[in-house]
Amino acid sequence: MTAVGIDAIEVRTGRLKLDLAETFAPEMGDDPEKYTKGLGLFASSFPDAYEDIVTMGANAAHRLMERKGLEPQDIGRIDVATESAFDNSKPVSTYIAGCLEQVYDGDFHHANKGERKFACISGTQSLDDAVNWILAGRNRGRGALVIATDTALYARDSSGEATQGAGAVAMYITEDPSMVELSTEQGYGSADETDFLKPNQQFPSVDGKRSMQVYLARMREALTDFERAAGDTHPDDYAFIPFHTPFPGMVRKAALLGYRHMIRGTEVEDELAEDIGRQPRRENFDSREEFEEAIKGYVDDLKDTDAYREWYGEAIDPTLDISSQVGNWYTGSVHIARVSALLHAAETDMDLAGQKLLVASYGSGAQAEIHEETVKPGFADEVEALNIDDQIETRQDISFEEYEQIHDRHNHEKSVELEPFTQPDEEFVFDGWGPMNERKYTYIQ
């Protein structure tokens, strides 16, 4: 079977930075460690007055196409995943295509365009759609452009406010990819849940405690389902495990439960048994409550073992570096976790070619998906061409008062004029409204 996967990635973060410890925490009356240690977040990215989900997506896609020497005729479909859309009919992909047509001689009239919605997992679903399109032989030699773009805003003073973020990830999907090849085996966990939703509203309604429970339950189901297709998993099978990262603290919980699942009945469990005992088995308990209490005790002991700490430091920690500095990007979240891991591997000269990633995506409402990816020999050249570190470093710091202004500027329920904090340079910008209330965009030289 032909290898299909991600040939190239580009990332675009919002141009503004809110420092959570120095700027946000004092205004909230909070200890900074609530964010830096508890949530695992140090800063959030925000879009400037001229940025939005279209400009971030288009700018990421444009840089990808320029770097790879692509023209519109090389692209057979453009799929955009977002939960920040501003139109219930016209997809964001058409806006992004329109932006790109401003800077290329050709057009994208031949390209299939769409918009995916299933909370944060829709970025991975769009990736799956593109892979399946190529595997089905419908691409006629063309690649697919998959863009995950979001402005993840929460209502002021809500529990999720500190996890906000804004950015886009553009991925080019082809045969014989340079970065990673996707497995055909996938696992799913899905249920009708109301943990996080936006019923005709911009800002989400969130049951925080319930959302964490649903995230972990769906991830467990997806891992079990994946193993039905691909066989048992083991911690040593994967160089990295990128998770959907609403905030790094959530991944700590998911990774611990995933590790417990993967070592059950293995030599790792046997080696740990002398110190913390064997994992509780349901058949040894009279009630589910007693069993779950025993599991909780085992997991608490497991997280303090050297074996788990070493595994977490190698397989999970490197996936969180970017997220800790930019916040939650919704549909792009798991994809910046992948980028973060691959950047770490390239920077530390890891011989990663041929090794596997276990990618764990999630979307509220709710569904998780788990699949494998095999790293290709060209991954290092691709990720080293990214400039995400420079983007993060050069963001404009904003004060709390400026944060309030930018939050209002991007609140769809308000009409707020705001002078930009930064100067656009060779990029697409939002340029006002058209006669049918459509958004207009211009490329600034």
UniProtKB/TrEMBL annotation:
The record's Gene Ontology biological-process terms are: acetyl-CoA metabolic process; farnesyl diphosphate biosynthetic process, mevalonate pathway
Q: What is the protein name stated in its UniProt record?
A: Hydroxymethylglutaryl-CoA synthase
GO molecular function term, any single one: hydroxymethylglutaryl-CoA synthase activity
The keyword Acyltransferase is annotated on this UniProt entry: yes
Boundaries of every Hydroxymethylglutaryl-coenzyme A synthase N-terminal domain copy: 4-175
Q: What is the lineage of its organism?
A: Archaea, Methanobacteriati, Methanobacteriota, Stenosarchaea group, Halobacteria
Record key words, sorted: Acyltransferase, Isoprene biosynthesis, Transferase
Q: Which family does it belong to?
A: Belongs to the thiolase-like superfamily. HMG-CoA synthase family.
Q: Where are the transmembrane segments?
A: none
CDD domains associated with the record? init_cond_enzymes
| Residue ranges occupied by any Hydroxymethylglutaryl-coenzyme A synthase C-terminal domain in the UniProt entry | 195-421
Lyase among keywords: no
